[in-house]
Design a protein that fits this description.
It contains 15 helices and two strands. The chain is mostly helical. The protein has three domains: about 15-100, Helix Hairpins; about 125-225, no CATH class; about 230-315, no CATH class. A two-stranded antiparallel sheet has the order 1-2. One of its GO terms (cellular component) is cytosol.
Length: about 325
Amino acid sequence: MTQCTSLVLCLNPTGIQKEFLDYVKESRCILKVYTSEQLSDWKKVDLYHVLDIEAYKDSPLHIVFLKNQQKKAIYKYHPDKNKKSSKEVAYLIDKAFSILSDENRRFKYDSYIFDESIPEERNYNTTEFFEVFGPIFEKNLKYSTKKDMPLLGNKETPLQSVQFFYKSWRAFESKRSFDYFFVTNSMDNMNSYQRKEELTRQKNNIKKKSAQEIQRISRLVEMAYNCDPRLNHLNQKSVKEKLDIKNIKINPKLISNGWTENEIKILGCLIEEDKNKKQQHDWENLFSRFNLNNDAGKNYNEFLVKGKEIIRMGIKKSSSAPGFVPRKRK
């Protein structure tokens, strides 16, 4: 009896229910959500919202389903059917269908609307850490060029797997597209020279954006690394090493890009220890030791660049040396 009653109410809602459903329907109307200026530019609206398919953003979209949604949107927003609508809205519906029905164009659009935000660096308890960082890494995993990238795991994940996770993500390579970030609608009115200049500008901007994307991922990884309670527990058992950095002589040119003399001496001392032991540099291990002996919080990429720069320029460890003596090249 109860199930039948519920079914009847769904098919024939009461006055209050109908009023609520109408309110929800009206509040989702793109004419209410977006301004006329936004509706005239497809990059300023959510094309999934235009076709009323936000729930399917992470799902495959069948062409038949998209055509049905397009027809519904046209019927609802076509200027002949809705006096509040306009030709721009009709164009927007067609644009949404043309982009979301094409796999390549949809990928570019998804890259464009992707949420790039990363959490703030603060003290997280164990539950908070996995609730905050876990979904973010899963979300970014979509744009990894590698299919076997590890996930963050949980508090029971073995330390070896945790270290492998950070090692893998520090080498993250993104396949995210930035083509739609710099698309302009005015190229039709340009001459050949202006088009060439515009395409060059777009290419340079895409290159910069790609570099920023790697930096964003790097910040996310290092932030998670610094906040990870599994590694904090490990670090609590560790103590700072007694490094003899007083007699380290460095090239002044190494003091750049936010690196202080003390930080370079610490890294140089660690590199020299590896060299004296006649072993290959384990950069992951060096990075962990560097962070343990230094509170600057450098990310792995800039650490690696500076480490190789130190090796290239050479350092001198001598109490009697008057200054920097470059290492002789073989």
